Amino acid sequence: MNTKLLMSISAIILGIVAIVLSFFPQEISNYAGFERTDLIVLQILGALYFGFAILNWTAKANLIGAIYSRPVAIGNFAHFMIGALALVKLSFSSATLPYIWIAAIIYSIFAILFGYIFFTNPAAKKKSV
Hints:
single chain; mainly alpha; 2 domains; 6 helices; globular
């Protein structure tokens, strides 16, 4: 699997979400119907996404998986798997929100891909080619 492409795409998506959450929390809060006190939570979430985006962007040139950059693979897998489970559960309880379904699908795809990277050995595959 081309981990450089996966890391780049995840970094770009997370970076876009980070910018939107950091600079437009009031607009997102109004659209989603959140309370005014939730603005700081959205900005902190934006900072979290920005951190993951930077991590993925800077680690994209490294070999990811198995023992190579294992913390990066574990962090991404845990983030996307837990997020996917939570979003899928939420999407089934509020089926009328299409943006929750879209987020659940994106998170599920990334969870599967990072799970594959985490549980396979890229060095072994590289030698067999």
